[in-house]
Structure formats: C-alpha cells, structure tokens
Amino acid sequence: MPPNILVAFDGSPLAERALTYAIETFPDATITTIYVINPIDSVIDVEAGGLPVAEDWYENAQERAAHIQTTAVDLAAEHGRDIDTVTEVGRPPRTIIDYADGHNVDQIVMGSHGRSGIDRTLLGSVAEIVTRRAHIPVTIVG
Is 126 exposed, middle or buried (0-12, 13-18, 19+ CB in 10 A)? Predict the structure, then answer.
C-alpha cells in the first residue's frame, strides 16, 4: 500500500517547497494537503481592522482556504500529480496532528515556518510543535 503523506499547506513559499518535496520524494504516495483555519487569526484581523465585519470572518477564512488549496492543486498538477485537499478549523499544530492520527497518515511534511517576524515570536512555530508532538515522522523543509 502506498504511503499516505500529509502536507501542511498555508500558501507560503516554504509550504510550496514542502509540497514539491513531497511530490518528488514520494512519487507513489497519496498526498493530502491540509489548511487550518485558525479562529485566533480572525480576532487579530478584526482588532487590526483587517476585516470590515467580525461576523464575516468565517466566510472570509473559507474563501482564503479555497484559494490556498487551489494553489496546492495547481502546483501538484504542474508536477503531473493529483492530490487531495482538506480544510479544518482549529489551532494549527493540534489540528494537523489530530488529522494525521485519525486518517492513517504515515508522514507529515511541512515548511520550517509560514509566519515571520512578530507573528512567529508571539504564536510560536507550528512546525516545531508538530515535530515535538506528532506520533509519526515529520519532515521539515527549509
């Protein structure tokens, strides 16, 4: 049975590198990208004036997720591959790990970080938390 690979995909350049790595390294694998809608991000966006109406945060997040997942599908198609995509809601590290645990994932692949600057300092590194807490191998692409 081919391996089942989960790629954390947030649309960042490092996430694109992680997906490309997974496609090239696991040519026979079933690859699924996961994008996590983090409700905490909506609070930050509303407080910063990034969203016009707080009630629209989920619709806006779903639209962003769909756009990001389309980017993943298009990138895979450029490499002649089909992938599955999934969007979940929650705290990214825990949601990625829970999804992997519940879907017989053999390995997680992710970029070393998607955030930069103060966001990374305040919120920590998703990659670091997933690496420490996952029950399966995690490959970090830098």
Answer: buried
